[in-house]
Amino acid sequence: MKDYIATIVKNERIAENIYAVTFDLGEIPTVRAGQFGDILVGGTHLLRRPIAVCKTEGSQVTFCYQIKGEGTKMLKTMGTGTTLNVLMPLGNGFFVEETEKKVALVGGGVGVFPLISVLRAYGQEKEISAYIGYRNKDAVCGVEEFEKAKKFVAVTDDGSYGEKMNAVQAFVKDLKAGNTFDVVLACGPTPMLRALKAVVEEENLPCYVSLEERMGCGIGACLVCVCDLTNGKKARVCKDGPVFNASEVVL
Description:
Helix content is 18%, strand content 36%. It contains five helices and 15 strands.
């Protein structure tokens, strides 16, 4: 983990209300798929904005973010050459075992972006199928990355792009068609993850989920992002996660 003085090299709109910002860190970072960075946007915003790493290329790292609050509204206005503090890499990411050859990615909303980092990390050595759900055609992004998977299924809630269904339904459709997987990796809204957990438990499939929680410090000190575990204990999403075994967390 290092607090970089990072320079924006690109900050552009890639879909409705979605932007991608690329920083040059000045050195090549070591980042595991599924880890995140904490970006200090400045001004009156004292808390950093936790955003998943989408991809790294040399000394450059790209984060994709949705405009939600004042912090992300500020970030989208920042142009090339702007320098910001970026604390990274943070959290525990995805790890695919050597024996896990066939991998399913299930993502929805801004949860699709951490899965791009998984595809980039494991796409050459694993057989990856990606089931990605969007709200509508205006929200579709990252297609050029997911098309690198062995199989890519894009769906939308309203059927304006791909079939009318969600990512979990698309995944289940392939399961019923006879497709098999060694492990499932997922990120998206909690209702999506909850539905997926029910499916993988029934199919007896190992599954790892990246949780999306509001964070304060990003390093496990403030306890804002605590989640419940199935053993009755609690865990910090930023430090103990954000990736957890689906069977171990309450969704």
